[in-house]
Every structure is written in structure tokens, then in C-alpha cells.
Write a structure and sequence with these properties.
This protein is of the alpha/beta class and 399 residues long. The protein folds into 2 domains: 4-58 and 302-397, Aspartate Aminotransferase, domain 1; 72-300, Type I PLP-dependent aspartate aminotransferase-like (Major domain) (Aspartate Aminotransferase, domain 2, 3-Layer(aba) Sandwich). Helices cover 38% and strands 18% of the residues. It has 13 helices and 17 strands. The strands form 4 sheets. A 7-stranded mixed sheet has the order 4-12-11-10-7-5-6, sandwiched between helices. A 4-stranded mixed sheet has the order 1-2-3-15. Helix 3 runs antiparallel to helix 10 (285-300) and helix 4 packs parallel to helix 10 (285-300). It is globular, with a radius of gyration of 21 Å. The chain starts with a helix and ends with a helix.
């Protein structure tokens, strides 16, 4: 068994200082619960930041990984890969896209989507500018970071890549003002995650679709956090009745195992020819087996609808019991992607929940974020909400 102090010392000594780690060493998980090295149990309401949609160690995912690891862990994409082909069919048969490219992470999916957009634009005599939204988060690589509409992530990273423009979220006029022949794509998260659980309006997304059609621009939906059942449909766009040209997915897609992808309509995907894009590890036998088990389970267990129903119930409960709070600015969400925005910094509440052995997250400085497993029991979610409501009321009393 690992010793917490030993592991902390090793991390402090050897790891880059990029993470603000909570003082706990997690070693085991099952369902919506995790345990530390001392046997203490925590209720995971963050789900590995929307990764553990099936909870921890879902039996079908564990079995798929074990079975595949005993046969073939890796071979390159120079050869046909069985689990990859079946995962591609499963995903594409459940959405409006025609082609898929597998990679290893959300950032890589975004990079691939942007690269495809520019290749398509080049063949159509257009420029390569990509328009993104304030408050967005698209990844940590330099290009994805530049696309991210939060200046704090740009600090100290100059010179950033060119060809990006950022406009206010949910503001169609701002997009219209700068979308021209120099523009290849508009990229938007239907529900912003890191930006504070901010939801795009249906009208806004429909207007974006119409604008892109009118001006010959691609519409890219970043569903890395809000996709794979979290907002009430397998793909988030399906809840807005707007079909994009390209979609990026990752996080929950592998049930905890790293895998990502971008999907596109045929006429867009055909812009990529042999050698235009590639990945050493993308869609490996092991990753694809995990992804196939995870996505199949999400669909077969009816988890998108369950997320929708549980989310409505949870938000209504929070609004009912915390509606009069002096420190709450807003309570919002879609499915099991819920944010409680405070009028003050939210780190104190995150720490209070941690002391009660409840794992949530503060994002955008003042938004408490809930991203629990989609199969979390109502009893577990209710227990988490009980603790959260008590924490908020305690803070409220001392304001």
C-alpha cells in the first residue's frame, strides 16, 4: 500500500509544479465512490472531470481492458484494428457524421478538427481563421490554447499561433461582424465546462448554423466535456437540434481510458488525403476496446436519458433550497453537468466539501461544478446535495 507522505514528497520533488493537488492519495474506486490509502471513502461528484461517466471500474470496461490486454495492446494504424472499426461504426451509427479519426485526448481531437477545417478551407479558396468564444476551453497545446477564450491561459505563452479570433459567447452579432472569406470555421462548446457551465441558447446555435451555411464556413462543436450522454443525449448537439460539420469528443468515451476522436461529414472528411494526419497511439486495440465497452454501456444502460432526468431533479432541488442565498448568483446546468455560480470565490466551498469527503470542483474562480457519473444512484447524488446545501448555508450565515 502506498504511503501518502512518501508519494507527496516524490511528487513535490520530481513532478512539474502544475497541479494544485488536494491532500489525499486515492488508490481504489468502485461506482461513484473512491477510497484513499487509509481506507477513507469519498463520494465522487466530479467524475474525473467528466471522464468517469460510468463511475469507477465499470465491470464491462474492466473486462474489455483485461481481455484485450492479454491479446494485443498496441499495433500501429498501418494495419487494420478490430475494436477500432467496431467503435467507429457504433459512434457513427448514433450520430449524423460520416467519418471518424481516433486520437488520444480532447486536445488532440481539437487540433485535428482545426487542421481539417483549414485543409477544407484551403481547397475551397478560403482563409484559415477560426472563431471561438469567450469563456471557452479547448485544450493545452499551443493552438488549442490560443483557441481557448480565457486570457489567463495565454499569459507567458507568446508568441501564440495566428489565425484565431475570440468573440462573446451567445452573441451572434459578434460572430457576424468578423466572419468573412478569411474564416474557415466557428468552434463552440454547446455547454462550456471550464468556462463555468454556461449553456448556449438554441437560438444562438441555430443562428450560427444558418450563418455558417450562408457564408460557407464550417461549424465545429467541441463536445469533449458535454458529450457522451452527459447533457441528456449521446451527442450534445442532439439536444439542440443543430447538426455541426465537425464534432470533437474524448473524456467519457473511454470509461477512464485515454481516447479521443473528431468526427466529420463526408464532404469535409474527404479533404484529408493519405498522410495528411496521423497518430501513433490513436485508436489502439486497447484504447478502442475500452471505448467500445464504455460507449456501448452508456447506450445500453440508457444513461443519457437518466442524466437528463437526474439533472432536472438535482437542479430543481438546489434552486428550491438555495434560492434565497445571498452568495449565490445562479444555479444552472444541463443533464448531469451542473454549475452553482457564487458572488465570491468558490474555493472555500470546494474545501468544505472535501472535508466532508465529497469531491467537487471550483472552476472559473467562482462556479462550483458537478460532473458525477451518469449512473450515480439517486441516493448517492442526494447525499452529495445534502452536504453541498449544508456547506452553502454555513457560508451564507457568516456573510
Amino acid at each position: 500500500m502506498y504511503d501518502y507522505l512518501e508519494i507527496k514528497e516524490l511528487n513535490d520533488r520530481y513532478h512539474f509544479g502544475t497541479y494544485r493537488r488536494l491532500p489525499v492519495l486515492l488508490v481504489e474506486g468502485k461506482g461513484s465512490r473512491v477510497r484513499d490509502n487509509e481506507g477513507n471513502e469519498y463520494l465522487d461528484l466530479l467524475g474525473g472531470i467528466a471522464v468517469n461517466a460510468l463511475g469507477h471500474c465499470h465491470p464491462k470496461v474492466v473486462d474489455a481492458i483485461q481481455q484485450q490486454a492479454s491479446k494485443l495492446i498496441h499495433c500501429s494504424n498501418l494495419y487494420h484494428i478490430g475494436p477500432q472499426a467496431h467503435l467507429a461504426r457504433l459512434l457513427l451509427e448514433n450520430c449524423d457524421m460520416d467519418r471518424i479519426f481516433f486520437c488520444n485526448s480532447g486536445t488532440e481531437a481539437v487540433e485535428g478538427a482545426m487542421k481539417l477545417s483549414r485543409k477544407w478551407a484551403s481547397s475551397h479558396g478560403r482563409g484559415g481563421k477560426i472563431i471561438t468564444m469567450e469563456g471557452s476551453f479547448h485544450g493545452r497545446s499551443l493552438a488549442a490554447l490560443t483557441a481557448t477564450g480565457q486570457r489567463k491561459y495565454h499569459e507567458g505563452m507568446d508568441p501564440l499561433p495566428t489565425g484565431f479570433a475570440t468573440v462573446p459567447f451567445n452573441d451572434i452579432d459578434a460572430v457576424k461582424a468578423i466572419a468573412g472569406d478569411d474564416t474557415c470555421a466557428v468552434m463552440v462548446e454547446p455547454v462550456q465546462g471550464e468556462g463555468g457551465i454556461r449553456i448556449a441558447s438554441r437560438e444562438y446555435l441555430k443562428d450560427l448554423r444558418d450563418l455558417c451555411n450562408e457564408r460557407g464556413i464550417l461549424l465545429v462543436f467541441d463536445e469533449i466535456q458535454c458529450g457522451m450522454g452527459r447533457t441528456g443525449h449521446l451527442f450534445a448537439y442532439q439536444g439542440f437540434d443543430v447538426v455541426p460539420d465537425i464534432i470533437t469528443i474524448a473524456k467519457a468515451m473511454g470509461g477512464g481510458f485515454p481516447i479521443g476522436a473528431f468526427l466529420a461529414r463526408e464532404e469535409i472528411a474527404s479533404s484529408f488525403q493519405g498522410g495528411d494526419h496521423g497518430s501513433t497511439f490513436g485508436g489502439s486495440p486497447l484504447a478502442s476496446a475500452a471505448g467500445l465497452a464504455a460507449v456501448s454501456s452508456i447506450i445500453e444502460e440508457g444513461l443519457p436519458k437518466r442524466a437528463k432526468d437526474l439533472g432536472v431533479w438535482a437542479i430543481q432541488r438546489l434552486q428550491k433550497e438555495l434560492g434565497g442565498s445571498r452568495i449565490i448568483k445562479d444555479i444552472r446546468g444541463m443533464g448531469l453537468m451542473i454549475g452553482v455560480e457564487l458572488k465570491r470565490d468558490g474555493k472555500e466551498v470546494e474545501d468544505m466539501m472535501f472535508k466532508r469527503r465529497m469531491l467537487i470542483n471550483c472552476t472559473a474562480g467562482h462556479v462550483l461544478r458537478f460532473l458525477p457519473p451518469l449512473n450515480i444512484s439517486r441516493e448517492d447524488l442526494n447525499e452529495g446535495l445534502d452536504a453541498f446545501i449544508k456547506c452553502l448555508k454555513e457560508v451564507d450565515r457568516h456573510e
